Amino acid sequence: MKKKILLVDDEETLRWALKDTLLDDGYDVEDTNDSVEALKLAKKIKYDLVISDLTMPAMNGVQLISEIKKVSPATKAVIMTGYGSTEAVIEAMHTGVSDFITKPFKLEHIKKVIRKVLNEHGNSDANADNGKKYGNEGMWSCEEFTGKQRESYYVAEDETEISNRVFYDAVETDGSNLVLFGSFSREAGVKNLDTVIKSVFRYEAKTCRSSSSLAKSINNYLCENVKKRFPLILFCLIRDKSAQKLSYSVCGEEFTCFMFSRNNEMTYLQSYSSYLNMFPDIGVIERTLPMTSGNRFIVIDNSAVAKGLRKGILQKDRLKEVFEKGAGESCEEIAKKMKHEIEGWYELAADERNSSVLVFKFENSECRPWKEEINIFRPIHDYDEIIKLLEEKLSKAVNDECKRQEIITSVNEAVLNALFFAYKEGEKGDIALKFSRSGEEILIEVNDRGCGFDTQNYTEPDTTLYRGITRKDGRGIFIMKQLMDRVMIQSHKGTGTSVFLAKRVNFNGN
What pTM does this model have? Predict the structure, then answer.
């Protein structure tokens, strides 16, 4: 049976794109831009999941979820929130919100969150290994990845529920990479604390350039908003891309942190006894390191290991030996081996062997971001020249001729739609094309400043017998959706239309 989802957001374009995506994934989706109307629907229909924007007139997202929970306690909820809204997170903890999605977000990311919340298990990496694995696609990013820059990590968690509860997150912005790993006692009993911390982390990530100031911001927020006082252990690291240096802070002595170079040289990252969530305005020590490509970082959450190293019962070389056994393997394999080896050490008491291990790495990009732009001025005297220009621009980046022609065809359809419908006959105008590379995808944006149209009233053409696939009935949009991996259209009457296209390709030079 299809899962029923109610989507509530007053941003028309986002709601349209998200609904379209979820329908394609096989969900039964209803949507509304009115929180009061959403509550009426929830009283009539039992939804498996409600996805709501946080900021809306009449009722905000938290109030809406609270009211829905009164009539349908089993309904799960996800809140979509923009920057600057973390103040509402504490309130939302008590309403049973399952997760938060920070805008702007990737559609693939929210799809994975939905699968996790609904406890669906597909074949994707995000669902493999009981959800423990997080690679490139599991990262939340403020901006799209550029070139070959990416980071990957794996957390081998303790599954006995004896050791601390851990949380982890990673963010990439234009100028930096930020990594967060923390733990707190399961006896603390604070619901959704990890979600609260990650929300603050993501909010601060946009402007924060110091690991110590990041830790202080999290600490002050917790001291002001969480009533219970219990020690929180935190590792945070910021990589400055331009300066190629790292700053890190380790709050709490239970973490054991190392950095390994490509040559397997080991650097011990010192931890300090200052715990978070104990006192406001505490001092946090920050250290810096030079950054080279391929370095791997290991953080071990095991108080006995940390204590054994401090007292000399355990030698750091033992950890180095474990790493060297799997140095050429993935972060996942290293984390699993490290966890397995540690839990077998006889020096540790039986009740102190449970551990969680984080392994992550950064890779530097040696290629510059690829960008091209074309301006097409109307009226056009030689359209063949435009097609040649598209071929010339794309041939610099896209290896696969078949995919290159699919992209050209799609862009051509978007341009033709703009030429025929955006401007009146004889009217002067222009169409701007922007090409860029993002990770392993090519992104194209086609913009006009013409008449625009109402996306809410657009209906897909009848494709059963290929009827209605004409220029007038949406032929261009249909073809773009067949040839490209993702298509999004934003349009408003009188202000113009933007068409966003994305396709995974093999780039020249890879």
Answer: 0.52
